[in-house]
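Putative transposase, Rheinheimera pacifica. Tokens?
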Amino acid sequence: MARLPRVHLAGVPEHVIQRGNNRQVCFANDEDFAAYTHWLKEYSDAFGVHIHAWVFMTNHVHLLCTASDDSGISLMMQSLGRQYVRYFNQRYKRSGTLWEGRFKSCLVQEEHYVLAVYRYIEINPVRAGMVSSPSSYAWSSYAINALGKQSALCQPHPCYLALADSEAERQQAYRDLFKAEVNEALLCDIRSAVKSGMALGNDRFKQEVADLTGRRQQMGQRGRPEGWRKQV
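Tokens:
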């Protein structure tokens, strides 16, 4: 079966996941993380992609980003992936693939969902049991969005900027988002959307994406329709 093309829309935020092949380690030390960060900055600039949030785990990465044109994210991820594989294979004297096929992604509705994906990404190391607080993990955007650390890579999304007028108040409001219990239903929606490649949002947003792209954004009902035997 042919693979469906990904859905990208200029100006619409997107949640991207890239995993190591067979969940293998992609980052062995801080030098690897730093190299990936450097090239992410280089290629996001080259292809007009704004990076809002990220986390680099040992065997996968999460990004929340917005592109200025429909092809920006694909071009960025392709260039970044190839560059990093060359670096990793040379550094560790290996050959072959590193990534698990194509990256996965989904469009994200700004209202109600963008900040949820910010949080989902940055709390990843806590859910994985690596740290007790997102502030304790060095390779995520939490210190930038929540604590005001300076970064040339991070470009805030308007939904983040709308949290408050001043930087200090905005960072406090952002930290407050992490105090609430994780909504399991929302977690399932985020995971399902990026796995299926379908839009994350309400029915209106999904219909708008479907109309613009010609791609269905609702999961189809499995199995035969009720009453099909009578019709036959």
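The chain has one domain: 14-209.
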